[in-house]
Write a structure and sequence with these properties.
The protein starts with a strand and ends in a 21-residue tail after the last helix. Strands 5-4-3-2-1-15 form a 6-stranded mixed β-sheet. Strands 6-7-8-10-13-14 form a 6-stranded mixed β-sheet, covered by helices on one side. The protein contains 5 helices and 15 strands. It is of the alpha/beta class.
């Protein structure tokens, strides 16, 4: 028996005009649906430019409550297109309290669940700790009509613990809305190493947990408003991998792209029978994983 779903991924280059970005996303969603998509995944913080290149208190005005205007917009899109939709929003939870939050919509437009980004980076051009409070929901898969989605966000993708906890709680797919790219001063060799590490890490999560992975990155060059750097060239390369890490589809690195990929969710059962990593885990010997460092 097979249980196949078609997943649409939207790799978009954003502008400074929020309305334009939303209209482009709506058009791309319709394009994916026309190709048979049942589940559509958007990139990280898809409404706007990646504003975390600088620390600017005025940019908190981009945040919205959940529910709010953006959830209303995407709710209507999910219902109109009869899809499960994974979005990534800048959440205003309370005055002075903000999160980087993925919101999943059911096919009828209702909110199936949300995930607040747990791992928050703070690196040159990625000053996310200035804007986002770490998530407090935990690593909880979101139940939808298409299956149980293990939704994580960008920096979470480097942490095998996050993927494993989602898998142990029954996630059937690991999903990573993402915003990652190169700084112009990086050499070509360094750029290649970074990109390969990004892909390998996530394919490793697929293998280690016997689950498909969907990773959707933004694309295009976005200027640094402070001019302290030359901005970020987001490297695209959005991809879907199967439960043995096999690449099912991969976008390019320099242009927007919509792809629809079929995933067989039942294949994970067979892969876990062949490679029973969960069976052979030594859970009696992993206490050290809860420590910051072991001397």
């Amino acid at each position: 028996m097979t249980r196949k779903i078609k997943v649409g991924i939207i790799q978009q280059a954003n502008t400074s005009n929020l309305h334009t970005n939303l209209m482009n996303l709506a058009k791309s969603i319709e394009d994916c649906v026309a190709q048979g998509a049942q589940l559509v995944v958007l990139q990280e913080l898809h409404n706007s430019l990646y504003f975390c290149q600088t620390e600017n208190t005025q940019l908190f005005d981009l945040a919205e409550p959940i529910p709010g205007p953006s959830t209303g917009f995407y709710s209507e899109l999910a219902a109109a297109n009869d899809i499960v939709l994974v979005t990534s929003l800048f959440e205003k939870r309370a005055p002075g309290l903000y999160h980087n939050t993925a919101v999943v919509f059911e096919r009828d437009g209702s909110i199936a669940g949300k995930y607040r980004k747990m791992h928050i980076p703070d690196d040159p051009a990625y000053y996310e700790k200035f804007y986002f409070t770490p998530g407090d929901i935990g690593f909880e898969p979101i139940q939808t009509s298409l299956g149980k989605l293990g939704v994580l966000v960008c920096w979470d993708q480097w942490y095998p613990e996050a993927a494993r906890l989602m898998a142990l709680k029954g996630a059937e797919i690991l999903i990573y809305p993402t915003a990652i790219g190169w700084e112009s001063s990086d050499t070509d060799d360094e750029k290649a190493r970074q990109l390969n590490a990004w892909i390998i890490s996530q394919r490793g999560h697929a293998v280690a947990n016997g689950l498909p992975v969907v990773s959707v990155n933004r694309v295009g060059h976005e200027l640094d408003p402070s001019s302290q750097t030359n901005g970020i060239q987001f490297w695209g390369n959005s991809f879907v991998a199967g439960p043995q890490g096999e690449l099912l589809a991969q976008a390019g690195n320099d242009s927007p792209e919509n792809m629809v990929v079929e995933i067989d969710l039942e294949r994970s059962e067979n892969v876990r029978r062949w490679w029973p990593f969960l069976r052979d885990r030594r859970i009696d010997a992993y206490e050290g994983l809860t420590k910051r460092f072991l001397d």
